Amino acid sequence: MTTYVALLRGINVGGHNKIKMADLKEMFVQLGFQHPQTLLQSGNVVFQSPSKSRAELETSLAKATKERFGIAPAYLVRTSAEIDAAISANPFPQMAQSDPSHLLVAFLPEPPDREAVAKVAFAIQGPEKLEAGDEHLYIAYPGDVGHSKVDRTPGWKALFGRSTARNWNTLLKLSDLGRSL
């Protein structure tokens, strides 16, 4: 069995696409996944499956969510080991220690275009920093995330289009949860 982390994109945001985590967990049980555990209300599920294909899991989870809840959020699935690797490769270790809620990891459906990441990182006008990971991006927000204007940087939206982000604290909790199964 492989331990996976399912990251849902765009649920329970601003009162839209609402799914109760207990109902989501029950869906995972009904689909035959082992030991599903949810974290927070933003759509994080740690579970075990014999499947070796993240793409198949993403497709089947999206289909089941549409059938059960009538909404179609995107799923990005990573193994627990991939979450741990993203944590280990963090290019902003000092921020992870001093201000973890302002360090985000945005998970992408495919590896980022490193040239595009470098261009966007160079164009950032504020204090924010951006680095590429394997299938994710690290974003350090030394100020207030909610008031940052970094998303207005040319190329930002194209880079982050279908991503889903989690702050460092959440990522650590997902890692701990994955190791506990």
Could you walk me through the main structural features you see in this protein, from its secondary elements to its overall organization?
- The termini are close together.
- A hairpin with a 3-residue loop joins β6 and β7.
- The mean pLDDT is 94.
- α3 packs across α7.
- The chain is 38% helix and 24% strand.
- The strands form 2 sheets. A 4-stranded antiparallel β-sheet has the order 2-3-1-4, sandwiched between helices. A 4-stranded antiparallel β-sheet has the order 6-7-5-8.
- It folds into 2 domains: 81 residues, SP0830-like domains (Alpha-Beta Plaits); 96 residues, Alpha-Beta Plaits, CATH 3.30.70.1260.
- The protein is globular.
- The protein is of the alpha+beta class and 181 residues long.
